[in-house]
# Entry
Amino acid sequence: MRGRIAAPVTRHEKIQPGKATLHRMPDTMPALAVSAHTATSALGRGLDAHEDALRRMRGGLAHNNFSSAPLDCWIGRVAGLEAATLPATLNEWECRNNRLAWMGLQQDRFMDAVHRAASRYGSDRIAVLLGTSTGSIASTEQGYRHLDVDGRLPAEVRRPIIHCLHSLSAFARTALELSGPCLTVSTACSSSAKVYAMATRMMQADLIDAAVVGGTDTLCDSVLFGFNSLGLVSQQACRPFDIERDGISIGEAAGFALLERAERAPDATRLAGYGESSDAHHMSTPHPEGLGAERAMRDALARAGLRPEQVDYINLHGTSTRKNDEVEAALIARLFPDTTRSSSTKGYTGHTLGAAGALEASIALLALERSLLPGNLGCDTPDPLCEGRLQQETRARNVRVALSNSFGFGGNNACLAFVRAEEAA
Amino acid sequence: MNGDLNLWVEGIGIWTPGLPDWNHFIAHLDGQPAAEDAPARPGASLLPPAERRRAPDSVRLAVETATQAVAMSERDAAHLSSVFASAHGDAIIMDYMCATLADTPLDMSPTRFHNSVHNAAAGYWTIATGCHRSSNAVCASEASFGAGLLEAATLAVSENEPVLLSAFDVPGKGPLVEMLSTHVPFGCALVLSPERGTHARAALRLRLHASSQPQQPPSDPHLRRLARQNACGDALTLLEALATPRPGSTCIAAGDGLTLHIETDVPA
# Structure
């Protein structure tokens, strides 16, 4: 046998499942500038629409008129997506998810900011790292509903590039005319939060000078009937942290941010830290004590060099399931003083799954940039387990430090820490 | 592009029909016939029996190769951050879901739905190993292996910790098949460390180039065929280099117009 790399004879003895591990806290990281960001959801297109809805506590959920068979639930649907089109040069990417991504990229002069960065750094020095849970699967579903006489996908969706998850990032990279590293992350509902961490690491390793991060997920039967099969879909508009909450409302959204080194955009809000962890507990149920979530939050604070009492606002994962909200609220009460205010914004937008990390990062950034404490829409009577730090009504308030939580199936957790530029100095 | 990523390979896992682990892979390159007793499905014996029954073949494949690689590294799996890369995750479940949704959407199986997430393998793995570290699930179409390697290497270097990479793809079913490039199941795993530890078995130097250099196919004819039949098949070029006890260099696509130039140094 040649080579010296040989596998040991007894293969599994070194792996001991379930063994407790000591956790090493991460070092602080150099903060990055969020030099542009944008969000599109059931609340409308762009940041102003989101700020307005949050200030007025106007939700975007409506009774389900989407799924192919009636499902009695509420959804967060982006208006005008059916009529939206891609530019002719991008036609091969046509599908609902890429249409929403394109619509999202058009808002808040985001593409201008990316093009400026590309001329500054070179298009190959900008990564495109986007998260999605189901990507363009709605097109695959559509194809299966309309198979041709030979049992093949119909011609209009017979394009391999829309039947894989990477369609989203590959489309965005093409549309933005970038040529740097390009990955799609799909860790369910933490997907588009983790991309912020990946961009930070690529910058630390000097692979890139900037990154377009974010995510897009669109309504599709897979998630509506999938979450329904798990008994997790509410028949009412979701009510995070309310005593009568009984499940999620599914929404769709696109959110994007441009990250650069802090010195290149001294006035921009900072990504100060991130934390990622695994529950190691269950595929579709959170850890009962929020162990993974706590690690993600503690790591985000450690990287940001922040203490819990410095946190003004937390955008909670707050899905409105019985279990998530109970576990998350108990964790917040354990880690943070009551000067830290927190809310879920899923009562406005629905749970936008793989886009939730990016959408809610933008909402946390809005809290910092527009002095806003978003109220927790849908919670009339807080579950006593969830009281204390829950911000029920929207308030104008100076917010200097904000966190955003995103937890996904498979026990995949991420937390992002953002601070205003002057706090980072 | 700047930024070399220097790493040490501490463990290697591989599974494909006929080549169920690294020793069989090396034996094959040495001209020995394929294992006659090779299992038809990845064993994934790390998973508890109930989980193994529930886990789709894509998860079993990813867990099997990850288990092999971690065992070779003699690391504790619970201490390793992980990156799982796959172009399509589980295309069989995707076919099941789309077929069910077209006919009887209310009959969707909850188990198959939660198994359909792209991070199913990461979930099963971290649960089975009690690992609370970061786990990721990424894809980049036909460059999923190269992009996953880039992510795992970046993670290892910037966080200064060993990282498990598991890359896999399995064939699909039904009308979806003609949209997929995977026709033979194949998965591999690497434990990558930024430092030369006692179990360092090969050195890697990765450099990212913004150009499309031709992907170097494996030189072994069987591996070359296999590489064309699996979306993560690019990995076979690197595995072949790691089986060669001398310095070498290979090119692997990390994306459209992006190439990872990899120098390998395997001590003889």
User: Anything to note?
Assistant: Chain A touches chain B through 96 residues (CB under 8 Å). Chain A has one domain: 32-424. DSSP finds twelve helices and 16 strands in chain A. Residues 7-20 of chain A have pLDDT under 50 and may be disordered.
